[in-house]
Amino acid sequence: MKIKHLLLLLTIIIFGANAQKISKLPEYKLSKKEIESHIRFIASDEMLGRRTGEITNNVAARYVAENFRLQGLKTPNGQKDYLQPVPFEMVKPTKKGEVLVGTDSLKWTKDFIMLSGKATKLENVPVVFVGYGWVDEKQDDYKGIDVKGKIVVAQFGIPNSDDPNENLRGSSKKVDFAAKNGAAAFIQLYNLKYPWAAITNYMGGEKLTLAPDNASSSDIPHIWVSNTHIKKFAKETLSTLSLNVAEVSKKTVMSYNVLGVLEGSDPVLKNEYLVLTAHFDHVGTGRKGGRVTESDTIFNGARDNAFGTTAILSAVKAFTQKPAKRSILFIAYTGEEIGLLGSKYYAEHPLVPLKQCVYSLDCDGAGYNDTTKVTIIGLDRTDAQPQIEAGAKAYGLTAISDPAPEQNLFDRSDNVNLAAKGIPSPDFAPGFTAFDAEINKFYHQVSDSPESVNYNYLLKFCQAYIYSARLIADRPTAPKWKAGDKYEKAFNELYGK
């Protein structure tokens, strides 16, 4: 009995000491009024849904930037401002033209869509089949094949991948491969599980894409043909094609990521960076945003992702008051809702060397249905799991792992773009245990407004996020992926392991 009493006493003493230590941290003193004010501005009706490419998205970026300035963050890499320009192109198909396969005339939308390219008329031009039309260090589908002045036909997607998003992202690279080899046009035979009508609705209309780094990027027609016509493109029977298509117009549109740097307190560890990220954009207004109601057409995006943006702004304030041992790079991304494009751009154009960035903790989610939890997408994929669990527990929350692994959520948020470079990068999301009615009630709905938020929970959520980040930033060793993770190879290449 005496031993039990002694152990209980020690537990109380240790718990009390930890609680006292935590209570002295800036995040413990975070104000509910302050986090609510961030939400009520970022997700206000006046911000009109913060859609990438629209002026209120730039206003949101400036709001984040001026909060960075107010708290004394430095700009990264000697930049003049906290804003990193992200060049987009507004692509608008004219939806005019036809593709002739023998005597069959394929029509815009119903049978094919053209994603990019100039106005082109080709009559009875030879067809060349090139498998996937893919080129990398392992294969070159153009090797030994003359495609100059010809129409290249390829199967959809990229080799050895059943990830629809990866296949879609690889599409633009494939047309560049065709153009570099001299092709006159590039046709892909669509075969994904998504219905053709859904694809044409999304890909065949006006949309924003990242502007190519190379101004002389391909201008040959890039066409997708519906899966209902694949048999007409049989290699054995098809030798020539004709097409007559109008130009897909493009206009440059500028958006911005927002970046700030805080130097660490340790003379050695300050050369390494913890990266804290969240996207600030949402889906806008009207039917381009989603399902509207008679009384409301504004998609405020309080949960998605004013939550994450507020967590970042709160983290900035906490860490400037008490810096961590490692330096911290704060990034607010644009363009998440249109394909993770802001984070994709940053991963290819980093302002802090990626090799110095040892961990990234993204903050994004669809909403919450359990206010006793935080959901960490990728919790068990890195060895920083104990720090995240402890960070949540300190504020009365339980950190749980991905409740819907079949949804592949890890690769559907901004965290994936740094993860693909090798940086351990989980996503810290509000507590959800399933995609149920409570989640669907607010996810990309006009109902996701500041008035619908549980601010007591948001306060704990932000505190748990900040303290988890602090524990990771103060670790003596840099975090790493668990052995065998799909991104472990990239990790080893990045850090020279």
Automatic annotation (TrEMBL):
Lineage: superkingdom: Bacteria
Domain Peptidase M28: 257-463
GO biological process entries: proteolysis
Gene3D superfamilies: 3.50.30.30, Zn peptidases
InterPro entries (UniProt xref): M28_fam, PA_dom_sf, Peptidase_M28
Gene Ontology molecular function: metalloexopeptidase activity
Name used for this protein in its record: M28-family zinc peptidase
